[in-house]
Design a protein that fits this description.
Layout lengths: L2 H6 L16 H9 L8 H18 L5 E7 L2 H12 L5 E6 L2 H12 L3 E6 L8 H13 L6 E5 L1 E2 L4 E2 L2 H10 L3 E5 L17 E5 L10 E7 H12 L11 H9 L9 H18 L1 H20 L11 H4 L16
Parallel strand pairs: 2-3, 2-4, 4-7, 7-8
Antiparallel strand pairs: 1-9, 5-6, 8-9
Helix pairs in contact: 2-10, 3-10, 6-7
């Protein structure tokens, strides 16, 4: 059976799932047409240098943050933050506003960290006063956490949190803010700069690419802490989840393990499109406009239908006129 006959047996779909998301067919074709290359030669550097620069612009971070691509998924990046930035004898607080906050907490438990979970009702955001009270209680009890995990955008409930505000509370107690941003990065401002220790995301959501890479933005302070923990035997991350190794390879525009080279081609094309054709601010404005259109549609349904998430945490107050934007699936 030939390629055409095999392809005819599957459905032609346009995905509207939270992830993996629809990938433009023209992008897939062009990425596949690009030459094959080895991940240990200069060709990967030619691609990764502009990819890293474009990702840095999208994240709105300066050179005090490392941009790291981790073969795997967003979960790979998230678990790297757990294995490499929390000592075996240290406490971690996991803040959950839904299923993926629970998953981040589950990673801390699976990696045998001393973990505690603070949960908020589904559809609600992170109450900063409740978070502060919890951190005060843990400090009083001699269980001050070295790190706090939370989710930028909770896919299961449609809630977005203020990364800078939440991180500000966490840092006042001397803990590292570790952020799951798998469904946020590429659609909205990150709030990373000067606030977050490690911000983990992936290719298959708002970047509109196939799965295959976890992406991490890691502060200098966090990388140094990872080195300290490993060198002093305070944690023993597996080689493929070792932040120190990943940071070292990223410094040479390499990966520690064999990556999906066709996906690197797609990243090369897509990040250039986002930064240099669509524009980062314009892209974020387009996503806000689409969100507002969706919320307005739900409000107009009647018959008892309503947005699940509380509007104060699901929708920002700034509005964008869709008529002023050019829409495309990218």
């Amino acid at each position: 059976m030939g390629f055409k006959e095999l392809i005819a047996q599957v459905e032609e779909l346009k995905l509207f799932t939270p992830g993996p998301t629809y990938v433009r067919r023209d992008l897939m074709v062009e990425a596949a047409r690009m030459p094959n290359f080895s991940h240990r030669d200069v060709e990967i550097v030619k691609r990764f240098k502009p990819v890293y620069a474009n990702l840095r612009k999208m994240a709105e971070v300066d050179d005090s943050y490392h941009v790291i691509l981790i073969p795997g998924s967003g979960s790979s990046a998230m678990e790297t933050s757990i294995t490499s930035l929390i000592g075996d004898d240290e406490k971690v607080l996991s803040v959950s506003i839904g299923s993926f906050g629970d998953m981040y907490h589950g990673m801390t438990v699976a990696n045998k960290k001393n973990s505690e979970k603070l949960s908020f009702e589904p559809g609600q955001g992170i109450d900063l006063n409740v978070l502060e009270d919890k951190l005060k209680e843990m400090e009083r009890n001699g269980e001050k956490p070295s790190a706090v995990t939370f989710t930028h955008n909770e896919t299961s409930t449609g809630v977005e949190v203020d990364v800078a505000a939440v991180s500000g509370v966490i840092k006042r107690f001397g803990a590292l803010p570790l952020v799951d941003a798998v469904s946020a990065f590429g659609a909205t401002h990150t709030g990373i700069q000067g606030n977050v220790a490690m911000y983990s995301t992936a290719t298959q959501k708002c970047l509109a690419l196939d799965a295959g890479f976890g992406i991490a933005f890691v502060s200098d302070e966090a990388v140094e802490r990872a080195k300290y923990l490993v060198q002093n035997g305070k944690c023993s991350p597996p080689s493929i989840l070792n932040l120190v190794n990943h940071a070292k390879n990223a410094g040479s525009f390499m990966t520690g393990t064999t990556p999906n080279c066709t996906l690197i081609n797609a990243l090369y094309l897509q990040t250039d499109y986002i930064v240099n054709e669509e524009g980062v601010k314009e892209r974020y404005a387009r996503h806000r406009a689409l969100r507002d259109m969706t919320h307005d549609w739900i409000d107009g349904l009647g018959n008892g239908f309503q947005l699940f998430a509380d509007k104060e945490v699901a929708s920002k107050k700034d509005k964008v006129d869709p008529a002023q934007l050019s829409f495309s699936i990218a």
